[in-house]
Design goal:
Number of helices: 4
Keywords: Membrane, Transmembrane, Transmembrane helix
Radius of gyration: 21 Å
Transmembrane segments: 6-26
Number of strands: 8
Largest sheet: 4 strands, mixed
Distance between the termini: 77 Å
Amino acid sequence: MRLSTTGRYIVAIVIVAWIAVLALLISMRPTGSETRFDTAGSLEQAIAAADTQGLNIVGLSPQDLYGDEWIAAAVVCPYSTTQGIATNFEADAAELELDAAGVPEDTNYLLLRSADGGQAFDRIAREDVDLCTVPLGGYFDSRVMLPLGKTAEGGWTLLN
């Protein structure tokens, strides 16, 4: 069977379009270090809303932001290694794909735990929200309000 010139062009266009769609789908998939769950990014969204309202201090509860299934939370700060996270929080941080130096200096994570032992890491850029200014030392009840204040540089930080 021979295709006409027009037929060949149509087949070529379909193949190129298919390759473009596959490339787009591959580029849009989350990487291992980007934990994805239904409410990922909720803290940053709440902070953005507070910024829009002109607030300088706000109290946010992880359970209110992320959902009732998350009963405990912890802050994972820069330089925490996979082994350190496993030891301190009994959590598997393999999905974060950390190197030997641990969590990058410009990143902190909010680690959420459910009653059935499930976990989720929400990656937060420290220039936006720095949760590592006050050492919390392990898990805390996710119903507790986190006091956050706006910095002179425009970011937000955990207050004492």
